[in-house]
From TrEMBL:
Family, per entry: Belongs to the GST superfamily. Theta family.
Protein name: glutathione transferase
One of the GO biological process terms: glutathione metabolic process
Species per Swiss-Prot/TrEMBL record: Phlebotomus kandelakii
Keywords linked to the UniProt accession: Cytoplasm, Transferase
Molecular-function annotations in GO: glutathione transferase activity
Record's keyword annotation contains Cytoplasm: yes
């Protein structure tokens, strides 16, 4: 099938999720990097040619433009197709994947994202130190959300939506790795989450590790400076 243009930045967890997914599911996408830190998504040209929203990821399929990672997965399923377990046809199985994808917005994605922005991105952009009180509050919020992953989502099943891996696991794994940039280990003291993460990584590698290289590099730096 014909490939579509895929705009992404590896700094964005949903971008990493999609580029990893397209690779492991053999979906023909033409990856086009966009540098968020340089504001390349804020230009008039970007709005005209790429997406009406100043965000990533997004695709352009022969002139049809679409943003929002979950919408992109559903569109690719209908137009290109991929193995069923990633996003099942079965109504109930699909609903369980959707349940996580709906839940994560105000939970894992939000808490991991806010923590990362406050502790790492904003200080880099502004040159000002992060507000420690706010960082501590956001770290506690992130820990509570990760505990819900540990004790609720992964209580009984090897994967988020049941016995088989799905796109829910890819999105989750990419989101929970984001705080590693700040030297935060999301798996610490969470045996279910750690075992799940190993299973997911095994299914997605080498693509997953390749697309998280720079996160691990910064994470190691953060841990080194924390020791000083």
């Amino acid at each position: 099938s014909v490939s579509f243009k895929f705009y992404y930045d590896l700094l964005s967890p949903p971008s990493r999720a999609l580029i990893t997914f397209f690779r492991v599911a053999n979906i023909p996408a033409e990856p086009i990097p966009v540098a968020l830190r340089k504001g390349e998504h804020l230009t008039e040209q970007y709005r005209r040619d790429v997406s009406r929203f100043p965000k990533l990821p997004c695709i352009n399929d022969q002139g049809f433009k679409l943003s929002e990672s979950v919408a992109i997965v559903r569109y690719v399923k209908r137009t290109r197709g991929f193995e069923d377990f990633w996003y099942p046809e079965d109504v109930k199985a699909q609903a369980l994947v959707d349940e996580y994808l709906s839940w994560t917005h105000n939970n894992i994605r939000m808490s991991a994202g806010l923590y990362f922005i406050t502790k790492w991105r904003t200080p880099i952009l502004t040159g000002k130190e992060a507000d420690e009180k706010q960082v501590k509050r956001l770290e506690e919020q992130l820990s509570r959300t990760l505990d819900v992953m540990e004790n609720v989502w992964l209580e009984r099943n090897p994967f988020i939506a049941g016995e088989s891996i799905s796109v829910a696991d890819i999105f989750a794994a990419c989101d929970i790795e984001q705080p590693r940039i700040c030297g935060f280990n999301p798996l610490s003291s969470r045996p279910n989450l750690s075992a799940w993460f190993s299973r997911v990584k095994e299914k997605l590698d080498p693509s997953f590790t390749e697309h998280h290289k720079f996160i691990y590099k910064y994470g190691e730096r953060a841990q080194e400076s924390a020791k000083l």
